[in-house]
């Protein structure tokens, strides 16, 4: 039996593609790949530099993932300022509340990360790295106010870097919407 079907005009349609083969998005091209990578590196170096200058850690794993999303996929919903800001800060708050109610443990971290997904869906601000922020809040025991302020500053800084990178033509149009 043939893997080809007939089109309305009677011509043979191409074989159906397996869902396992060829489903990856196309390579964006050398220039966008290099510029998106450079923008990500610059944004992370800025977080490190500001952290060093202020004596506060801004370069945390969830923000590194946020930088990648903003600089490599600027048009997608998780890259937009709403998702970055509400997702990160909301998940940070949720993680801190989980600690206050349930204490520190891997079990609580897992629950906080899972609940952060529901919170982000409720806020219409889905941002996958923010689930890791909830875990970080549970496992690292940060000073709550300082943690949330630094998280908000770091998130806002990544949005600003994304806007500048977009204006310079280093990444695609960013943001596609603000809120």
Task: Summarize the structure in words.
This protein is mainly α and 179 residues long. The protein has helices at residues 30-54, 61-72, 81-102, 106-123, 129-140, 144-167. 37% of the residues are buried. The model has no long low-confidence stretch (mean pLDDT 91).
Task: Give a quick rundown of the structure.
The protein is 63% helix and 0% strand. By secondary structure, the chain is mainly α. Helix 2 runs parallel beside helix 6 and helix 4 runs antiparallel to helix 5.
Features:
globular; mainly alpha
End-to-end Cα distance, whole Å, is 52 Å
Percentage of β-strand residues: under 5%
Percent helix range: 55-70%
Assign the structural class, choosing from mainly alpha, mainly beta, alpha/beta, alpha+beta, or little secondary structure. mainly alpha
Taking all residues together, what is the mean pLDDT? Answer: 91
Q: What's the total count of β strands? A: 0
| Radius of gyration over C-alpha positions, nearest whole angstrom | 20 Å
Unreliable stretches: none
Continuous helix count = 6
């Amino acid at each position: 039996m043939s893997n080809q079907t007939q089109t309305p005009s009677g011509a043979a349609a191409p074989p159906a593609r397996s869902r396992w083969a060829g489903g990856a998005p196309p390579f964006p091209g050398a220039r966008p790949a290099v510029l998106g990578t450079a923008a990500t590196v610059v944004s992370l170096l800025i977080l490190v530099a500001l952290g060093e200058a202020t004596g506060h850690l801004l370069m945390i794993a969830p923000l590194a993932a946020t930088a990648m999303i903003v600089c490599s996929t600027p048009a997608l919903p998780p890259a937009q300022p709403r998702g970055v800001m509400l997702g990160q800060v909301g998940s940070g708050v949720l993680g801190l509340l989980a600690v206050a109610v349930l204490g520190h443990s891997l079990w609580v971290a897992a629950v906080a990360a899972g609940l952060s997904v529901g919170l982000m869906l409720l806020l219409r601000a889905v941002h996958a790295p923010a689930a890791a922020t909830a875990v970080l809040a549970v496992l690292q025991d940060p000073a709550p106010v300082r943690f949330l302020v630094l998280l908000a500053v770091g998130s806002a800084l990544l949005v600003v870097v994304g806007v500048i990178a977009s204006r310079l033509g280093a990444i695609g149009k960013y943001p596609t919407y603000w809120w």
